[in-house]
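Design job #97: recover the sequence.
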């Protein structure tokens, strides 16, 4: 019998085809974890000596780390770019509140891509890309959502949250709670592909963290300082201590996720990504980089970025090529084998060659960081800041010396690229946001209309200058009102619930909710006196509003016609000094 000699190339090719077929039939799960206001330097993996993050470190040590990975300077733009693979200005995101955080409804999200490919999808945490449907996560491809849609939340213990549009009470410390929902989702879907999005909301302020983490830090002497020098007062020291304690809580919860994957035999079937949404929310150690949250300098936009897929991607690989949040969606499509064509051209590119290949061919590129009129751009070696200064990021990562005079050709090329980006990308951001706040979109049964998005008239005051988790108070004039420019998506009958608080002398007061010709009155029949709280859990004096527990009052059913108009709540009869404090209205389609 003739002996058949095997061809190594043919064998490799057959194994490659076989592995592709296996991936097609059994695509990997994806878990995307984003922390909030955690800087590049807030991990022991990156050299922070004042905290330990062993679970996140282990993800990096057994996976791939991107050493120069860039996001936007603040929360909602970064989330929009990660979800779409496109610059946030293309999707209408220009602010972090009052509607400016909303991602245009014609943008295709990562969840929609995965859902179309047969994945079960869930998001647990801080959404921050639109509250009312069709901007709501349940309208953007997520089968299950638990958390809050606002930019920040005022209390992290047993807070008022929502589950698929319905108001619910959280269970314990919020990050622990969100993680448990993630674990339950994994368990429920362990026999089918899933996409789990965990946008954590810490270490964003208020600086609240469980005692067992805080005890380690409350008297800890810090060995590293921020790029702006040592802290100026005790509050700044404690802010750093709290942020590090919150970072260790995040790490503990990441460990819970990984342990559950291991125990469920899912670790090698799951891609896990970890990153942050912007630079640190304080002057703490960040590799001596210039800038922090809100800045388009290196320290404001450089994020930790880890991708781990046990047994499938290289172990311990560190990638020095620059990359961006807009690259995640095209990368994940390649890694999971999803072949769908994007509805709109992506700005990001797939990082799969950098991850999988030893010496990939890779062209130099520019990464653009924009926020509130300030545009900075980064190529592999240089950063041109928003003022036109040039910095050698290899030899001067702290941006201490402007070398624009010494590198005129580099400056010329980057300035030309900057102007081109303005004319071709930034131009898509409208000068005025004409999008209404939708009521009764058919993709979700309920619509939240919060104080955050309202415009007060008269003597009404917002509880804090940062609107995301505020309420209106000082309703001392009967005819004062709050308005929202809104649009009813489809005519129908809606049950209206108002969340309020008031003193005993306000009982009997009457208010009116109106939209167009439709009106309905509500009468306060029961006092709901409640004090602000949160300070007792804060490790540092906060800047944002404290919270109160508001009472839901069902005032009846209103019939709304399709179309645009002004939604208004105004006083009709006021007993006592103040009519009420107002938190939100909830419209439920009947």
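Job complete. Output follows.
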């Amino acid at each position: 019998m003739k002996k058949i000699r095997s061809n190594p190339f043919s064998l490799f090719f057959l194994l490659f085809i076989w592995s592709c077929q296996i991936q097609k039939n059994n695509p990997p799960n994806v878990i995307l974890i984003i922390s909030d206001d955690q800087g590049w330097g807030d991990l022991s993996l990156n050299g922070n000596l004042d905290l330990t993050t062993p679970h996140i470190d282990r993800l990096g040590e057994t996976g791939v780390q991107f050493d120069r990975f860039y996001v936007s300077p603040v929360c909602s733009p970064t989330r929009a770019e990660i979800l779409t693979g496109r610059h946030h200005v293309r999707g209408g995101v220009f602010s972090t509140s009052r509607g400016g955080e909303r991602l245009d409804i014609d943008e295709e999200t990562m969840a929609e891509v995965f859902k179309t490919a047969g994945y079960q999808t869930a998001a647990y945490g801080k959404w921050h890309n639109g509250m009312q449907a069709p901007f709501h996560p349940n309208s953007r491809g997520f089968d299950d959502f638990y958390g809050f849609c606002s930019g920040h939340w005022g209390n992290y213990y047993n807070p008022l949250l929502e589950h698929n549009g319905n108001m619910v009470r959280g269970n314990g410390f919020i990050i622990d709670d969100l993680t448990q929902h993630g674990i339950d989702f994994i368990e429920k879907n362990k026999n089918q592909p899933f996409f789990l999005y965990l946008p954590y909301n810490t270490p964003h302020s208020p600086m609240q963290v469980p005692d067992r983490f805080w005890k380690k830090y409350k008297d800890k002497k810090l060995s590293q300082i921020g790029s702006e020098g040592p802290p100026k007062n005790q509050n700044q020291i404690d802010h750093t201590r709290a942020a590090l304690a919150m970072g260790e809580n995040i790490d503990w919860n990441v460990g819970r996720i990984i342990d559950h994957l291991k125990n469920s035999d899912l670790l090698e079937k799951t891609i896990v990504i970890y990153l942050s949404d912007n630079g640190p929310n304080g002057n703490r150690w960040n590799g001596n980089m210039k800038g922090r949250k809100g800045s388009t300098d290196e320290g404001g936009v450089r994020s930790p970025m880890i991708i781990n897929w046990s047994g499938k991607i290289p172990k311990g690989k560190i990638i020095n090529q620059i990359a961006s949040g807009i690259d995640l969606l095209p990368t994940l499509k390649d890694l999971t084998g999803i072949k769908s064509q994007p509805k709109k051209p992506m700005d990001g590119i797939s990082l799969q060659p950098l991850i999988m290949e030893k010496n990939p061919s890779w062209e130099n590129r520019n990464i653009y960081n924009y926020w509130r009129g300030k545009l900075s751009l980064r190529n592999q070696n240089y950063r041109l800041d928003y003022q036109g200064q040039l910095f050698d990021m290899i030899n001067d990562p702290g941006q201490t010396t402007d070398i624009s005079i010494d590198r005129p050709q580099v400056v010329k090329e980057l300035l030309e690229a900057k102007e081109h980006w303005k004319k071709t990308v930034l131009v898509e951001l409208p000068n005025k946001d004409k999008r209404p706040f939708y009521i009764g979109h058919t993709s979700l049964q309920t619509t939240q209309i919060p104080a955050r998005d309202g415009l007060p008239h008269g003597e009404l005051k917002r509880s804090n200058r940062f609107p995301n988790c505020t309420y209106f108070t000082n309703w001392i004039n009967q005819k004062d009102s709050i308005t929202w420019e809104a649009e009813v998506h489809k005519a129908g009958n809606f049950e209206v619930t108002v969340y309020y608080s008031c003193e005993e002398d306000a009982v009997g007061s009457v208010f009116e909710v109106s939209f167009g010709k439709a009106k309905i009155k509500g009468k306060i029949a029961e006092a709901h006196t409640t004090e602000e709280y949160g300070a007792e859990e804060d490790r540092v004096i906060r800047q944002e509003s404290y919270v109160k527990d508001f009472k839901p009052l069902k005032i009846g059913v209103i019939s709304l016609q399709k179309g645009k108009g002004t939604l208004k709540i105004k006083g009709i009869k006021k007993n006592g000094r103040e009519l009420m404090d107002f938190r939100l209205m909830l419209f439920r389609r009947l």
